Request: fold
Amino acid sequence: MIKKLCIGFSHGDAAWKNRIAKHLKNLNIQDLYLTEDDRKTLTGTDWEVKIKTKINSADIFILLISIEFLSSQSINQYEIPAILKRRREEGISVIPVIIKPCAWKIIPWLQEIQVFPKDGTPLSMLEKPEIEESILQIVMQVHQILERNAEENIKTNSLQEVKLSTHILTSLPKRKIELLGRERELKELEEKIKQSQRLLLINGMGGIGKTEVCKRFFMEHYSQYPYAAWVDYTDSFKQSLTTAIKAEFIGIPETSNIDERFKGIIQYINNLNGELLLILDNISKTVTNDADLELLFQLQSHVRVIATSRLIIDGFEVYPLDVLSEASCIQLFYTFYKGKPDDESVKEIVWLCRFHTLSVELLARTAQNSMKPVKVLLDILRKKGFNLSDAIPEPTETFYGNENRQKRFFDHLLTLFQLTNVTENEEFLLSNISVLPALYIPVEDIKNWLELETVEDINASIKKGWLKSDDNFNIYMHPVLGEVVRQRTKPDSQKCASLIRSLTLKLNVEPGENPMEKVPFVVFAESVLRNIHDETVEVAMLANNMSMIYQAMGQIDRALEFQLKDLAISERLLDANHPSLATSYNNISMIYYSMGQLEQALEFGLKTIAIFHKVLGSDHPLLATSYNNVSLIYR
Reply:
């Protein structure tokens, strides 16, 4: 199938258009040229129809950026908004090429897109061989996009064929790169899940590809089941399942609390009239406190569960995942490193990584980003004593419970952090993201929560390998890298002040608002409170708002947990008669009241009255409300 590529350019840059188009002739594409002259040569609304037709029919856009292009009224007023709209809504690929010196870095929409050449040097300022090399990179980028789109079309056509027989209960997992060298493991998983054992645990240390193996398996096999679901494990099985499977999707009222939703979903799953493939990804160390996970073992026999974890979980058949082969690791390295090949040096680097997938990728990105020859990187690693063999055993196994081995592992990864030359601004960004859950989060949310002016540091962190991105402008930090960043940067309430403030506002319920609409932000706030350990008024406010949402969700025990955290901080930091302390006492009193623990409810209710009477006066409405609450307790 012929694909259509649109080259947008200013009239004065036609020579550059012709030069690049000549290189694209070998690809199976049709060129559509889009220039400001379209408006000048057509009358009436003809120009608008022609421009819209070109923009709407293109599969890929190449935009030749110059001062003439950026100052063109027609390009900026009509073409660019339409192209960006298709990029945002349809995921169309846009490739900006800097051809002449111009202030492209201050253009907001260009800050969010990878430009060519990758260092932003205009083509016109390069030597001829460098120009040809840069244009070749553009051609290869177009080629990769065409191949990826072809694969997605095949998958889409397959989905359309099976959508009548496969009912997908959740969103599909996000994928960014193809899996390398796991054919044997995928075949073994296929055989095991067909056997009578229906609870399978892919177990191994962090960063060797458990999630990617599971994603590949799910995408290849879910269409063989009448029902399928992918669930990212966050803080509990209950919260993870109710977040992934929408209540209204299976007929549960939107006003129901989390316990009602969870019960309804479990009942729905058990009553399905066909097999369900359920993936539960990345069960964390909080599992020891997750009583609801026991319900997995009570699901009906038609439910096939594959979980991933660094932990061994009783009741699951364990499938241990080892590291990649040497050949696959070398291939992985060259996936990210595009410099001069040096197989001997790369072979030694992957050996020093003990074939640990995440480390191999980080080092490849480091070499590529720093434009260092592989031999130079290898020498640096030797001088710094980097060698994961003293931390990763053979065969590979998770090292939870072995604190010495775990410390050696993270000490080595801290060396990689130093090698990547993370800037101060990037470190601030990574420190904040490290306290959030390991989920894909929209770039726009991160930008707003951290009050960032641009996404420049986000893009730089992606290039260096500390963040991953998908094609829908979401970013993700691997849990292992999150632990490394937290060890390195020591995030606290001061470094994460904007994030804490933003999430506190997101969880604040104004009169007339439905608190259940705030539930999606709970997983982020809970992760922040779990990873930030200093005690400030701002942390107390976030804990208080978390408590209010948990009350609305019907999780009274969790509501009390966070309200007690708020109270402990408030009692230490605030004056004994501070109104905010009285509010904390009142909230705890009402939680105890709802739990039927009336003596504790009365104790905190009377403390509330004492403070309000002293600081607000005898006629204040809040004091009247406090008297009313204590009256309910006495009754």
